[in-house]
Fold this protein.
Amino acid sequence: MNPADTATPTLRPAWRAIIGTLTWRRAAVAGLLAMSAAAVLNPVFSVPFGVLLGRMVFIAALLLLVFGAAGAWHPSRVPPWLAQVLAVALAAPVATLLAYLPSVGGDLREMLAHEGRLWGFIYITGTVLVIAPLVALGALYRERDAQARAAQLAFALERSTLEKEALDARLKLLQAQIEPHFLFNTLANVQALVESGSAQAAPVLKSLIAYLRAAMPRLHGGSPTLANEISLVRAYLELMRMRMPDRLAFSIDVADDIAAREFLPMSVLTLVENAVRHGIDPGEQGGRIDVSARREADGAAIRVVVADTGPGMSESAVSGTGLANLESRLRGRFGGAARLELHDALPHGLSAEIVVPANPVAPVAMAS
């Protein structure tokens, strides 16, 4: 096997690194510095300005290549920045010498014997030795600063991704905790009605089927809408009214223009379950639950209200798992843009209200 073939895979990344340093910005800066140095030294030289400018441009281009090469090939025990600055400083006299050789036909002795060319070599070398290391340090500083910003952005992106994953896992846990508690009780009730031959068995089973049908989009991971949520609430209330036909009345009023809006699943149902448990069940006379959803007057938010005629705030506003989880889910989905409000209803009862932005927003990460 040819040794050169084995060296190619190692050298190729290094050449790519060198070429990668030859950006338009660096080339423009090198050309501008070469022009400025030629303008400053022009009064000292007898050669035409174009010749002097050509030499300075050649030196600048060669030093730019050396700068890139030192970054790719440097001793492992020497910091890359130090290797690049030293390489530029050491290459400055060599680059100046190479720039002068064409004028003497490549004869080094003739250049050294000519006093004017020798002083020109010294002037140019001294100027380059002052400017080039400083420019190299500036370029390295800007490169390090850009790398630090890139690392910071990458860290922020990774942190945001991890926070989103943690938030998704938390929301799934919260949703699992608020599954309807009445499902198995309803099934047991249907069984008892069937065994006793009651005429209520078929209507109860029909309402249960309607409830499950409304819940299916959520169970299959479909996009939850306010209309789906209201269908779930209606089926749930129908079941509850069959369980206590003389003690529960309800109404549902949702504006058509917001029915298709994406909505937090199980949110309205949580409030309705809470209203039945703490507002209707405790009273001997039962009560009424009114569910409504409207855009607010300014159009910036949607307000969903679940009002009951139960005992009111003092007894029904219990800090339980359902409301606590709902508040957590609202914060996880909308941050500070959504809120859960509890108000006394007149003449008695409780009004639980969800306020969300009219335009859906992306989920926000919770602060740790």
